[in-house]
Specification:
The chain has about 350 residues and is of the alpha/beta class. It is built from eleven helices and twelve strands. Helix 4 crosses helix 5, helix 6 packs parallel to helix 8 and helix 9 runs parallel beside helix 10.
């Protein structure tokens, strides 16, 4: 575990510097009586150098370094264990400050890693096909706990292959933790922190329509919609959120989301045998998205112990995709990685992993 600041008995009650985007960091530093530009120095130390102590921030004066532990602390999630899949995917079980667990996934690419981060401990959305949903919502993650997954896990990547993309597709619904998710995105994209392009960050949502519109006004990152059905009846059964924001409302919100240049909205569609994977289903999906500038990611359902659903056959999947291709959609079959360690789409569950911790 990273060394934490324990200068005072109540250090855990001090603000965590990793919770602050640049503007809040500047306000915090100014309130301490120091120049605002010190905030930029501190953020570089935290995110670009990855330091875990104020003593290491040598561009700050000694007196200020000695004062900072009385004002704030540095905390990020700690690694409990990392599982490695046969395909190179790595799933990390992380412990939070209050003893809860979350999971993050490192997905290998040709020249970089994609990091799949969680935004909540558990999830309240109740999607019928998702393992995370079974544990319910424990709580929202703080900005430090969201960005901390990147800071903690980038040191686990192989030398010469850095984290090139971040996808908010782990445990939880990012838009249900809106304020903290936005702060995390601002930290990830700040030149003084992680410095990642907004083109390299993708947020996946089950369809919180008002927050989709708001996200488009606040930040401009890639957006993926977990769709999974072409009609309200089926989607109500799979995704309870649809009862509050039915397809007509969701489609209207998606049309309002700005995607600059040639970037396209992504619709994710999990193919479930006997539920939504027939040629007729593909035809109806094509009609639903007829006026959308989008691409479609097809994901074969990843089975897990106790699931009532099954994966469709290869032939069924190919036929579904071909219907969409014939109608000139960009429809890609997304190969799920890490299924053998329950790291694939819909399989994350910190509670499940934590239950097996004692067997290590």
């Amino acid at each position: 575990m990273s060394r934490q600041q324990t200068d005072k008995p109540d250090a855990a009650r001090l603000p965590n510097l990793l919770d602050f985007p640049l503007d809040e960091m500047e306000d915090f530093i100014a309130a301490s009586g120091k120049e605002k530009y010190r905030a930029r120095q501190i953020m570089k130390w935290l995110y670009q150098s990855g330091v875990t102590s104020f003593d290491a921030m040598t561009t700050l004066g000694r007196a200020f370094r000695e004062k900072l532990p009385l004002l704030a602390r540095i905390y990020r999630p700690s690694i409990v264990k990392i599982q490695k899949s046969q395909d190179g995917t790595q799933k990390a079980l992380l412990r939070l400050e209050d003893g809860l667990f979350i999971e993050s996934v490192l997905i290998p690419g040709k020249n970089h890693w994609t990091l799949c981060v969680s935004t909540q401990a558990g999830c309240a959305m109740g999607c019928a096909f998702c393992l995370t949903a079974r544990q319910g919502l424990k709580r929202n993650l703080t900005p430090a706990e969201i960005v901390g997954q990147f800071v903690t896990l980038r040191q686990e990547t192989e030398e010469g292959r850095a984290v090139g993309n971040i996808v908010m597709m782990g445990m939880g619904e990012p838009l249900a933790n809106y304020e903290n998710t936005i702060k995390a995105i601002k930290i990830l994209t700040s030149d003084y922190a992680v410095g990642m392009s907004n083109r390299r960050i993708t947020l996946s949502t089950c369809g919180l329509a008002p927050q989709i519109v708001q996200l488009g006004e606040d930040v401009c990152i890639n957006l993926a919609i977990s769709l999974n059905a072409h009609d309200d009846e089926t989607r109500n059964r799979l995704m309870p959120v649809n009862k509050k924001y039915p397809l007509a409302t969701l489609m209207d919100a998606c049309k309002k989301y700005p995607m600059p240049g040639r970037r396209m909205l992504t619709y994710e569609y999990i193919l479930i045998d006997g539920v939504n994977s027939s040629r007729a289903d593909a035809e109806k999906l094509a009609r639903l998205l007829a006026d959308q500038h989008c691409k479609i990611n097809l994901i074969v359902f990843n089975e897990y112990p106790g699931s009532p659903f099954k994966s469709p056959s290869t032939e069924t999947v190919s036929a579904f995709q071909q219907v969409l291709l014939d109608r000139r959609y960009t429809a890609m079959l997304r190969k799920s990685k890490g299924a053998d360690i329950l790291a694939a789409c819909g399989q994350l569950s910190g509670a499940y992993a934590a239950a097996s911790e004692n067997s290590l």
